[in-house]
Amino acid sequence: MLLLIFTNGASFMAGTFYASNAAIASQFPNQQKLAIQPLESSSCPPVKCPPIPQLSCPPCPEQPQLSCPPCREEPADANEEEEESAPAEENEEDEEDEDETEETEEAEETPLEQRRAESSSNNKQQQPKSLVFPEIVNRFAVGAAFTTKENFTATFDLGMPVEYSQKEGEKGVMIIYSSPQALPRKFGNTKAGNSNDPMRILSAQEATENCDYMNVIMTYHEGKRRQCLAIVPQYESFHIQKWLRVPEKGPSMGSFHPLRMVPRGKSMNGENAFHPPAHEKHTKKAWKMLEGYLDSVDDVIAELKPIVQKIASNNAIVVMVCNFGQSQLLLNFACSARAKGLDVSNVLVFATDQETQDLAVSIGLTSFFDKRNFGSMPKKAAKTYGDGIFTNMMLSKVICVHLASLVGVDFLFQDVDVMWYRNPLQFFQNNTSPIRHFDAYFQDDGSRSLRFAPFCANSGFYFIRNNPRTRYFLTSFLMQSDLVLRSFSHQSAMIAILSEHSSLLGLRVKVLPPEEFPSGFIYHRKKGRGHYGNYFTDLFKGKQKPWVLHMSWTKNKNNKVLYYKQLDQWYLQDKCMDKKVSEIALPSGSGFVDNCCSAESLFSCHYRDKPSSRPCKDSPALDKNGQSFW
Question: Which domain of life is it from (predicted)?
Answer without folding.
Answer: Eukaryota
